[in-house]
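Question thread 4412

I'm putting together a teaching handout and wanted feedback from people who do this every day. The idea is simple: show students a protein as raw sequence, then show them the structure tokens that encode its fold, then repeat with a second protein so they can compare. Below is the first pair exactly as I plan to print it.
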Amino acid sequence: MKKFGVGVIGCGAIFIVHAYPLLRMEETEIKAVCDIKLEARRAAAELFHCDAYSDYRELLARDDIDVVHILTPHYLHAPMAIAAAEAGKHVLTEKPMAISMEQAHAMLEAARRNGVTLGVIFQNRYNAASVAIKNALVNGSLGRIIGQRVVLSWTKPAEYYKRSDWHGTWDKEGGSLMIDQAIHVMDLARWFVDEEIASVQASIANRNHPEIETEDTAEGLITYRNGVKCVFFATNNFTYNAPVVVETHCEDGTALLEFDKAVITYRNGQELTVVNDPAETVNEAEYRAFFNEESSQVALRTLKEWGVIMLPVTWKAPRSYWGVTHIKQIQNFYTSLAEGVPPDITGEEALKTQQLIMAIYQAAKEQRTIEF
């Protein structure tokens, strides 16, 4: 079995969701981490028993690193991915792949030119609820898709943006609500329809966050080439993160996704309910034990010395309503590398969702329908 040397660039909030599977997988060995914040990279290095860098280019120069995970702010995804590809490294980056179509295409070209694999995280496709709906649509049991609706009503307090130097900016985050929060739901909706987009109409607004320059509300209409129309509404102005809704209306029934639950209702009265089971991908006791191991405790002690009281450097556990399927996508990425085949979610596949999000912004800013 080939063992891949891994480098992780970015040791912030999403770090632990990648760290956990990388530590438990037999085919990966973490060689180095990188972060501009000393306490973050120091804690991650303690956890991994590996080297740490403040400059990602030093990490990329290492011959023993085969794969790079990019977990940095949005505006750094493209330049770091391109540099990694030029260094001959495979790349798995968090969403969004970039903050512009030009950057996204440049990433794909760099990967092709250097013969490396580019993958983009859209882990919610692996949730049991998402898979159940996709299977029902693919096997034809629901018949032809007629229409679709997407609703996201979440909350983002002012403090979320005030404590960040890149959230809520066009030049660093590339937007806000749509490119950061709603992108996961829009990706699932597009994946369910699985058709080329014909046009996008949209509007965006900032209704309740004067501290940012980007949007906190969006709505619109997506028309696919097969005639299916998807209506969507998203906001960060609700009082809590309510269950997202993706309802796909078909000839022979409906498929309703609400966070971690899928309800597939057929015209003949049959109904199938599937709820994500986190135990399917991670044992809770094992996950908790992970934080009690000596390396984790060393990392925690290091952070306390720096006055950091939160979970290591704001590392966060997977959101319960989405499940813990980062593990499945990361495993698929490495299995695909070992077998010499493309992963499930390639850069080319992620580009389709990138194009949708960029079209929503363009349609709203230019106040016109964007034709594909």
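The second pair follows. I'd like the answer to focus on this one:
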Amino acid sequence: MQHIEADIEQLQMKVAFQEDTIEELNKALIKQQKQLELLEFQLSHVINKVKEIEVPSGDSPEIEPPPPHY
């Protein structure tokens, strides 16, 4: 009977440890998801800024000709 009680206690400790580990992993996952969302937002913002400053290709009166080489 004592052997069964010891096994039950050991299983209870393992379950408690696993629950703690799962909770820690869940918190880490939530934190990483928030960081990922922020990085995606920032990347989107940077992409939009780059698109705004891109020089249009082709002959455009807004583009200055290159300076003459000496």
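Top answer:
Good format. For the second protein you could add a caption like this: The mean pLDDT is 89. Helices lie at 2-53.
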